[in-house]
Amino acid sequence: MIQESPAYFKENIKQISEDENLRRIVRKATSLTLSKRSDLVTEYYSEGKDWEALRNQAHEIRKKTIDNLDTYLTDLEDHFERNGIEVKHAINASEACSFVLRILKEHNTRLVVKSKSMVTEEIHLNDKMIEAGIEVVETDLGEYIIQLAGETPSHITAPAMHKSRDDIGKLFSEKLGVPFTNDPAELTAYARRFLREKFLKADVGISGANFLIAETGTVVIIENEGNARLSTTLPKLHIVITGIEKVVPTLEETATLLKLLPVSATGQKATSYVSFINSPAKVKEDARPGKIIVILLDNGRKEILRRQEVREALYCIKCGACMNVCPVYQTVSGHAYGSVYPGPIGSILTPFLTTLKESKDLAYGSSLCGACSEICPVKIDIHNALLWIRSYAVQKKYTPFIERMLFKLWRIAMENIFVYNFGRSLLKFLQPLWSDYKDFPPLAEKSFHQLWKEGEIWNKNS
Amino acid sequence: MEQELLNKFATELIRVGGEFSLASSKIEILKIVNKILSQKGCNTAVLSSHPFFDSLKEMGKGESGINIFTIEQILSLAGESDYTNLLREKLSQTDAGINYAEYLIAETGSAVVVNTQSEPSYLSLLPEISIIVSKSNRVVKDMSEALNRLRTENLFDSSGCITFITGPSRTADIEKVLITGVHGPKKLYVIVINF
Ligand code: SF4
Question: Can you list the alpha helix ranges (DSSP code H) found in A107-159?
Answer without folding.
Answer: 118-122, 125-131, 141-149
